[in-house]
Known about the structure:
This protein is 62% helix and 15% strand. By secondary structure, the chain is of the alpha+beta class. A four-stranded antiparallel sheet has the order 2-3-6-7, with no helix packed on it. Helix 2 runs antiparallel to helix 3 (102-169) and helix 3 packs antiparallel against helix 6 (249-270).
Amino acid sequence: MFLLCSGIFAQSPLTLDDIVERSKSYNKQLAISRYQLEKAVNTRDNVWSYIYPKVSGSFNYNWQRLDNTDAPAAPGFSAANSDPVTSQALAFTGSASLGISSALYAGIRTQYLAYEIEEIAFEATAEEIEKQVRKFYFDILLLKESLELFQKRYEQAQELLSSTQASFDNGFVSEIELLQVRLRADGLKLAIERQESLYNQQLQDYLTLVGFERGFEVDMVERIADYSVNEDILNTVASSRSVSIYQRSDVRITEQRMKVNASTRTTSILQLLPLINVSYSYTGVTNGIEDAFNFDDSYYTDNQTFSVGLQWTLSELFPLSTPLTSIINSGITDDELEESLVSQIETAENTIDNLIREIERELKTLEEQSSTIELNQQLYDRTLEAYNDGTRTYDMLRQTEIDLLIQEQNFLSTQVTLIKKAFDLAHEANILFTDAYVKTN
């Protein structure tokens, strides 16, 4: 019924490292992003087909029956006679043309730069998913250990109920006091059931996120206390913040878009220049009465053409033409992207500063909570002794027990909050997630 006897701990042990590695292969959102990146690779490689020559060919076979025997003889025909005659002909035409333009090669470079944006975006998705997986892991641990706290308090309540029942049987306590102790135990029992249901639901959602089937049974072998924030990260981030910010995915994407925009502008400028067209065509025809596949010189004729031309679309030099408008708009886009880059850097700096302050504040809070728990534990132990001696009421004992439980839960929550903020800081400052914490066990 309760966590400690639940079958969910009967199977595979999992650690944070295990789950992070698995999520890289089985997370569905990451798999979708990987497919999108594969399509982007194909699109990038396809741009080389733009420089292929246009090649075409045609093959025709013609058969003709001639019933007019009075008609004069023609090349490839017998002289007029009384019998019908037939004519067969084969014709082949092949052509190839190639447009040579520097704008074409500039466009290919633009496509490659655009692909690099997709690569960075995929890396950003992978980093975001890893951050979510790591933070969710500690949310699960918090639910698990909070449930254990309730279980521990329930066991203490059961022991207290037994001793109070004995005192009641001996006439040392009133029935009202016995009912109060029983209600507290029943209340903890209901709280455990609700907490266990929430834990199991969240655990299954988490396992699905990292690629397990629902219903898969695991053992979360690690504890929150096994991890602590690496306080050195605060100094590291503060000293190298300006460098690390420029390695952020959003900043890199904006910088890459600036390169794409510059390349697009270059392409538009080159489109104003003439285009060189090179073409070649070949046509061959053979005629014969009995056999069209007769390539004797008397029946076969061919024609070849080679040309080189210069094509210049002068209308593209007119005001408001597409290339000129694209050049003007690219300048506006440059200004837009520069403003966006400045805004991203300022936002990142503010976010990092806020996270550092929040982590420092939570570290102090954690120290205070640790001291408060020690004092509350001592108060609870002495109040319990006094209650057993009959010098304290149950109301006083219950209040100290509730205060201690709240303090223990708050302490766990602060520990998890610290770890999660450290992950946020690592993500914002573009440093390794593993540098955000120290594993103490």
